[in-house]
Amino acid sequence: MTTILVPYHGNERFPDDTIPVRPDVTVDPELEGDDWEQLARLNNATAEAVAAAGDRPLVFSGDCLIAGGVVAGLQRAGVDPAIVWFDGHGDVHTLETTTSGYLGGLSLRLVNGAHPELYADRIGLRPIAPERAVLADARDLDPAEAAYLLTSATRRLTVPEVDPDTVPPGPLLVHVDADVLDADELPGLRFPVPGGPSTGDLLAACERLLATGRVAALHVACTWHSPASALHAELLRALAG
Predict the structure, then answer these.
(1) Average pLDDT, whole number, for the chain?
(2) Cβ(63)–Cβ(107) under 8 Å?
(3) Could you give the count of Cα atoms lying within 13 Å of 197 in the half-sphere of its Cβ?
(4) pLDDT tens digits for 225-240?
(5) Where does the pLDDT of residue 71 fall: very low under 50, low under 70, confident under 90, or very high at 90 and above?
(6) Which is the most buried residue in 11, 132, 151, 229, by most CB within 10 A?
(7) At residue 130, what are phi and psi to the nearest 5 degrees?
């Protein structure tokens, strides 16, 4: 298994103590242009690393916007995955619905094909259809996100409901945003949400999927402030294991 580190939140380069892993590959390209161009450079470099990584790469990044690069990398390697998205938020805004302007809130919707001229087309991503996506938890939704999900083919589950029978068939990308966890369990999150699943619930769900042999890659968004604590490091070790 190849461990890939993308030490960025948006275009912010993290200090080295933010994501406490020992990577085989660090994605750290020179960033130029506007926010979308910089995001494209990060995701293209991520896709190259994933495509070259071989069996089931493990990708750590500072936000969820790198998920498209992981998908594009798998596709370059001949794998067309469905996606299981563990997150405390929906990440299904568009530029028309976001009230904050925070691009991370568009992450899953971009992977599903929103604003292709800004995202998918620039990184060679073939968007994952909503019916091939599972959104696990997402207990904090803005009204526009809730309205979209009422009619979307994206399947919504609680974390304990995630198992091989409730996710799409075929290869899977498992995406874990650390803020899916109860904010009382993991301090220092950028966007904490109370009332979430326990670390044990999350790890058990991931283990159920990994046991199928269908997980093509695991992407962990380390959405906390620097520096990482012992609890953050323990979570990353557990997910890597």
Answers:
(1) 97
(2) yes
(3) 26
(4) 999 999 999 999 999 9
(5) very high
(6) 132
(7) -55, -35
Q: Give 136's strand partners.
A: 86, 157
Per-residue pLDDT, 241: 84
Other CB atoms within 10 A of residue 33 CB: 11
Q: Which helix (H) or strand (E) holds 37?
A: helix 35-51
- pTM score, two decimals? 0.97
Among candidates 226, 229, 221, which has minimal Cα distance to 60?
221
Instruction: Using alpha carbons, list the distances in angstroms from residue 79 to 25, 155, 167, 170, 171.
Output: 21, 21, 17, 10, 7
Buried b (16+ CB within 10 A) or exposed e, 94-109: eeebbeeeebbbbbbb
Place of tokens 């997910």: 239
Domain 3-240 coded CATH 3.40.800.10: yes
If one counts every other C-beta atom within 10 angstroms of the C-beta of residue 195, the result is 11
Residue in the block written with tokens 């968004």: 221
Nearest to 27 by CA among 99, 35, 57: 57
DSSP label of 135: E
Residue 1 — pLDDT band, cuts 50, 70, 90? confident
